[in-house]
Write a sequence for this structure.
């Protein structure tokens, strides 16, 4: 008889369970972004695409970080970007940046900021006061002429150096200095118009900025302004340089009220007055753009 088969006593292993799918990572919430109102203004001119352009950014509650303001200034890609802090009392906080650094004073961007507040924000009254790193700046508004009062900086005559002559490509009749700004004076406006300086050599001079100026017909004087050490080969229309130019020309021409023409390729016009230790500087402004920037 055939033998009965024995049942296997070997235990079978249970089937291995399939691995659980990995838990889905929770999505990272987006970084909060802030939207600002921004204006594009041409200052020291009545014509769009002339004068000196500036972006004006309106800020509520608190300043962005300095890094953010530098980045926004780089994004606007303008010679200067003004940041205005709204709703902070009678004195309005104002700061100025380009893509490289913060500035202590900028005339044309102050005119631009005042234009935005008077024209688009409907500021009441005929004047307002900005609180800045350079002190309080009052701006008066009358028929689209914005007049601000700044501290006069009378220059002192110094000797003409070979390095300056080589950088300018011409020898000026006189050279004056106010702080870290050089002012080279020529005998006629043609020399200023035709000047083609060596920007690399200008940047090696021990000066934050270099003004060139001369007497003129039609205006009391003309000027140009170069600041390559601060990322500005030539400025279009410079308010702060006139804190130096107005005391010089007022003394030389024996008159306190002056008209000025900055003869860059965009050009700019200023109405100036020396009043004691203050320079009153007036200019027009025109809006060329308005929008929003989200960062």
């Amino acid at each position: 008889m055939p033998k009965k088969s024995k049942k296997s006593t070997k235990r079978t292993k249970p089937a291995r369970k399939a691995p659980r799918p990995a838990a889905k990572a929770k999505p990272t919430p987006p970084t909060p972004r802030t939207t600002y109102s921004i204006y594009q203004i041409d200052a020291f001119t009545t014509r769009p695409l002339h004068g000196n352009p500036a972006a004006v950014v309106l800020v509520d509650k608190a300043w962005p970080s300095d890094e953010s303001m530098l980045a926004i200034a780089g994004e606007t890609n303008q010679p200067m970007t003004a940041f205005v802090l709204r709703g902070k009392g009678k004195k309005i906080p104002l700061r100025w940046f380009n893509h490289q650094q913060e500035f202590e004073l900028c005339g044309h961007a102050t005119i631009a900021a005042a234009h935005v507040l008077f024209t688009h924000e409907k500021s009441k009254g005929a004047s307002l006061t900005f609180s800045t790193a350079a002190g309080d700046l009052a701006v008066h508004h009358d028929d689209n002429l914005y007049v601000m009062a700044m501290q006069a900086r009378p220059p002192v005559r110094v000797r003409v150096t070979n390095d300056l002559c080589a950088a300018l490509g011409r020898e000026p009749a006189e050279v004056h200095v106010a702080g870290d700004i050089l002012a080279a004076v020529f005998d006629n406006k043609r020399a200023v118009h035709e000047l083609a300086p060596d920007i690399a050599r200008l940047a090696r001079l021990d000066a934050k900025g270099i003004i060139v100026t001369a007497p003129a017909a039609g205006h009391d004087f003309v000027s140009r302004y170069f600041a390559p050490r601060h990322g500005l080969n030539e400025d279009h229309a410079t308010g702060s340089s006139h804190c130096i130019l107005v005391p010089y020309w007022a003394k030389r021409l024996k008159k306190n009220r002056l008209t000025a023409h900055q003869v860059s390729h965009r050009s700019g016009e200023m109405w100036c007055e020396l009043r004691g230790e203050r320079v009153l500087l007036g200019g027009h402004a025109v809006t060329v753009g308005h929008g929003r920037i989200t960062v």
About this structure: The mean pLDDT is 91. Residues 280 and 289 are 28 Å apart (CA to CA).
